[in-house]
Amino acid sequence: MHWEYKTVSENLIETKASQWNVSKFLATLLLKKGFLEKDDIENFLNPSINKFRNPFDFEMMGSVVKKIISAKENSEKIFIYGDYDVDGITAAIFLVLAFREIGIDADYYIPNRMDEGYGLNKKTIDHIHKKSGKLVLTVDTGVNSFEDVEYARNLGIEVIVTDHHKSVKNDEEDNILFINPKLSDNYKFKFLSGAGVALKVAQGVYTHLNEDFSKLYQFMDIVMIGTVADVVPMFDENRIIISKGLETLKNTKIKGLVYLAKYLKLYNKDISTTDISYFVSPLINSLGRLGNSKLGADFFVKTDDFEIYNIIEEMKKANKQRRELERMIFDEANKMIQQKIDKNELKYIFVASERWHPGVIGVVASRLSVKYNLPVAMISLKDGIAKASCRSILGVNIFNILKLIENKLIRFGGHDLAAGFIANETDLPEIELLFQREIKVHEHNINQPQSIEIDLELSIDKINKNKINDIKKLGPFGLGNKHPYFIDSGVKIIDPKFFGIENRHFNGFLLKNGKTYPLVAFDLSSKLIQNSKNTVYDIVYYPEKIVNRGEEYYQFRLKDLKSYKI
Questions:
Q1: In b/e form, how buried is each residue of 163-197, taking b as 16+ CB within 10 angstroms?
Q2: What pLDDT, in 10s, does the model give residues 11-35?
Q3: pTM
């Protein structure tokens, strides 16, 4: 990986530190992020719920809110239909809890990934019809369920589609009520998660009823988990959601999250977006990946200790099974890739197998895309049907590629860099040829060297409480707001302990100037030179605060390393 390091003028740093009334260290990091104006700094450093956009900027929000209020006034139950991933589950549960808090009768339906597949379906609509349902809200799904919406309407069921995925149609159906930032002309922030869109609907309802917003925001940790899990850009409203959500999580009203934090041993530290991504989300997601998404939703609403304990046990079992499947699929896919005639000339990865679980291929596709820095289509085959998860790289829009070959697909959908499709297995050879043709158009973006941008050269023994606090002010971190990265040289790594699938990760200690510091490194084991006392490293890292039994200390999270002999 290429390390990029750009310096900032010392005079500019001093001038801005004085103007912004911040330390030179923080001023440097802000300048590296491209900030120059004080007002922008104020908004960035102080994300506030008062800065949420007006939910009625969505063109159809008024009509949507009226439908929901009408159901409340007529004592009708509203069915919230969520997708089976973390974003969809949290979006559904958030709306249910937010609605119940103000006297709206709401229940949730989470489809089974294996039996029902993606999107709204007739089986679910029939189920709701039998329960005399009159109003359905989809969350994190439904944007492409045109026929199913029409089917529901013929049964006397109104469907409101709230989603954040792209539409496969060029022109939207005028008679479908939808809330989707990607389909709105007036709503200027396009990158809400499904849970974020659900929040906007709830804000619209609460505003119309003049309800106390503290009732709504007590569940912001649920929205935050969905937002982090869906890897959306962490600026604008997402920054507010995540900041407020992490704060809410400290005193969460969700009993299941209290138990889960204890199991994951997260209650002794400031929980970060990384903790949500690496530990919380995979456990919740594992249930849905293996076909039991509803249990993941139940986790957020159950209050009985025994029931919560059992759900967490099921999460642990499912996550273990998911890891085993992931390892098997990853190994098999790698062998297929290595057998290519000239893997150095690969422009994309297109692999399929009847042995692969459709709920796990998306995780593996992400890993392969990172490993090979290529667009990936991983396909699970069963009974003549191919279900694919696709992941891509910057500069290659996988959704647009699928849209160009949609005449060969039964169904497709997703985002620019993460999408999926269903097709007949017999059409796969032709689909790959079309896929190859479209990838070739973007060939100039393929096999570009990966790089990491370094903010400052900073010895690990110079890290102190003030610097940690300054870094924290820049969070939450993620897509669109990367964590500041620092570089240090001449560091030794001692007593490494390996963990994770294929021992990809390790922890241990850094040794610098006679002092040791705890470290953790994800996906870097292959770069570690073992059993060599004469090896030192240049490291790219960031520090994080850990609180253990009331004692604070710093841990260093490595992002990359390069070894050399002394």
A1: bbbbbbeeeeeeebbbbbbbbbeebebebbbbbbb
A2: 999 999 999 999 999 999 999 998 9
A3: 0.88
